[in-house]
Design brief:
Length: 604
């Protein structure tokens, strides 16, 4: 069998899922009637959001070829996972919706594929649509790839052009190269947890072979374990005796802890260990953090169990217990990107029936400080970031302002593709977001690619919505982590009724603190609403109050009115209040609704 390993990469909604399904159907890999559900998309939640979080793979028989289609996640937060999947391939189909043209993820994927030395086959999709302009889209792509490569033209929907594309895959994409008899080396490009069989590891063989019954060794992680089962995906798991050089498949080795299997690690044998691991193994660290607390404090043990269970199957987030003065016992969660926060919170609430409060997400800071004053967090509990800096991933643990010598924040390189008419608006937004201009490139005189360096924190707070609004929805973006840079950021504390509420603290830039403090206080005033007594809402930076709002006490007659009315109205009101309570947390004597804790995300 001749082998071809490839991925399809595309900007979201450009038709990757439809084309994958079409290829599986046309090659008879999957029967037509089974295609009702889009196969490469797994979990229910993913489907609802139209994204694929976990990369998977399918073996396709085409003529006398064995094609392995390796799926990649489609959301910007997962660009690191795309790179991992692409390392398992020799080629990619770079798919572009010809009615839309090149978008930010197209650019990012194209450059990534080229930098990995992969064969790129451009594919113009949706040519069945009358508004499609495959010539224009192809021209845009040539400018990005910096070479004219003839594109395939297909309609994933009608199937037009797909036969030709399959031929192109086997002629253009090189066959895997490696030593079939060498010491085995297989790249782990994904893994998932099966409650019955333990961790299922997805691999691409680069050298040698692996067989059932042998004892594997993970070169980075060090773990050794007997291979209980080995096989390939159709997409169902199909057992076979072993996997040879170039092949893609799965391994079951009775591993119970998903954290001991790291994507990017190399599988070899315990008694025939390879000399060097495969390149590309990078430990990924969470970059965005948020806390969650049960609305009902007695639910804390339930939340712990839920997190343990969820983390068993989803290793892309980390968690650690946390105690907040305001919200009590909860957990600090670390994520790879923004979208994941929502998914994890939703799954916890939905699958484990929990009511949770989540705080505004923030990035990780590296802080250098003296320790003259008393600190909110045990110094020994803080990890080292090198050069005398400590890792601080929670605003509640910021050292007192007088002690701080320097703060570094993470930056990203952001790529934006926008129609030229929105360029000014986009650039103004990037400037507001503390961006630094890097470069710009016009493609096909209607579109422009803009690159900036920007603090990651600015992306975390409402970047996506603003970008959409300044570009009427036409601009798209992709980002990559850059490095930690010194920055004038400050901790802004929020005081409710004179008491600082740790879970409401946010980190912001010094120059923005006052404006944001005002907006935040206004928003909080609105969200908290009137209660039985007057409440002050204040923002404090470096010991100084920078903004204040007063929530007046509820007027007496509002309450009085209720007592006069009939009994059902009164009962209704009481029930309404009870419902409202569910999503409230009492801090001191003030009831604060859940929305208040993410108010930072909602200010303009
Ligand atoms: P993905 O996000 O890249 O996986 O995109 P999907 O495969 O989910 O496709 C996004 C939308 O485009 C869906 O509504 C598809 O039905 C539609 N679509 C995909 N391919 C074609 C095509 O060739 N022609 C037309 N007209 N629509 C398509």
């Amino acid at each position: 069998m001749k082998i071809r390993n490839f991925s399809i990469v595309a900007h979201i909604d450009h038709g990757k899922t439809t084309l994958s399904d079409r290829i599986l159907e046309d090659t008879g890999t999957v029967a037509k009637r089974k295609m009702t559900a889009q196969l490469l998309d797994g979990m229910e939640l993913e489907k609802e959001r139209g994204i694929t979080i976990k990369a998977k793979a399918v073996r396709i028989k085409y003529k006398d070829y064995e094609l392995n289609l390796i799926d990649t996640p489609g959301h910007v937060d997962f660009s690191y996972e795309v790179a991992r999947s692409l390392r398992a391939c020799e080629g990619v189909l770079l798919l572009v919706d010809a009615s839309q043209g090149v978008e930010a993820q197209t650019v990012a994927h194209a450059h990534l594929a080229q930098s990995l030395g992969l064969k790129v086959i451009p594919v113009m999709n949706k040519v069945d649509l009358s508004q499609s302009d495959a010539d224009l889209s192809e021209e845009q792509l040539w400018e990005i790839l910096r070479e004219p490569i003839l594109a395939e033209r297909v309609s994933a929907k009608t199937g037009m052009g797909v036969d030709h594309l399959l031929e192109r895959i086997v002629t253009d994409i090189p066959e895997p190269k490696g030593n079939p008899n060498g010491k085995p080396r297989a790249l782990i490009f994904d893994s998932f947890y099966d409650p019955f069989r333990g961790v299922i590891i997805y691999v691409r063989m680069f050298d040698g072979s692996l067989k059932q019954g042998q004892t594997l060794r993970l070169m980075g992680g060090g773990l050794t374990s007997k291979i209980e089962e080995i096989g390939y995906m159709t997409p169902q798991l199909v057992k076979c005796g072993g996997l040879n050089m170039g092949e893609v498949g799965y391994i079951v080795a009775g591993i119970k802890d998903i954290h001991s299997v790291k994507v990017g690690d190399t599988v070899t044998l315990a008694d025939n260990t390879a000399d060097e691991p495969l390149p590309g193994y990078e430990e990924t660290k969470p970059v965005v953090f948020a806390s969650i607390f049960p609305i009902d404090s007695p639910d804390y043990p339930l939340l712990r169990t839920a997190l343990e269970k969820l983390n068993l199957s989803d290793s892309s987030f980390s968690y650690q217990s946390e105690v907040s003065k305001a919200l009590g016992f909860g957990f600090r969660l670390g994520f790879m990107g923004l979208l994941h926060i929502e998914i994890v919170k939703e799954r916890l609430e939905r699958e484990f029936n929990l009511s949770l409060i989540a705080t505004s997400p923030n990035v990780v800071y590296h802080v250098k400080f003296t320790s003259k004053k008393s600190h909110p967090q045990e110094l020994s509990a803080l990890r080292d970031a090198g050069d005398g800096y400590k890792v601080i991933d929670n605003p509640a643990y910021f050292p007192p302002y007088g002690d701080i010598i320097d703060i570094k924040e993470p930056t990203i390189t952001i790529t934006i593709v926008t129609p030229v008419e929105f360029m000014d608006g986009v650039m103004t937004l990037l400037k507001e977001k503390r961006g630094t201009y890097l470069e710009m490139e016009h493609i096909s005189n209607m579109r422009v690619i803009i690159k900036y360096i920007m603090p990651m924190a600015e992306m975390v707070i409402d970047f996506y919505n603003k970008l959409k609004s300044v570009s009427k929805g036409y601009a798209s973006f992709d980002y990559e982590l850059d490095e930690y840079r010194s920055s004038d950021v400050v901790l802004m504390e929020i005081l409710i009724h004179g008491e600082p509420v740790d879970a409401l603290s946010v980190v912001t830039h010094k120059d923005k603190a006052q404006t944001q403090g005002r907006a935040l206080c206004e928003k909080l005033k609105e969200l908290i609403g009137r209660q039985m007594f007057e409440i002050a809402v204040q923002a404090r930076v470096n010991g100084k109050i920078v903004a204040r709002e007063t929530i007046p006490a509820m007027r007496k007659d509002v309450i009085a009115k209720c007592y006069g009315g009939d009994i059902t109205r009164k009962r209704k009101l009481l029930e309404k209040q009870k419902e409202g309570k569910k999503r409230m947390k009492s801090i001191g004597s003030v009831d604060i609704p859940q929305e208040a804790f993410v108010a930072m995300l909602k200010i303009d």
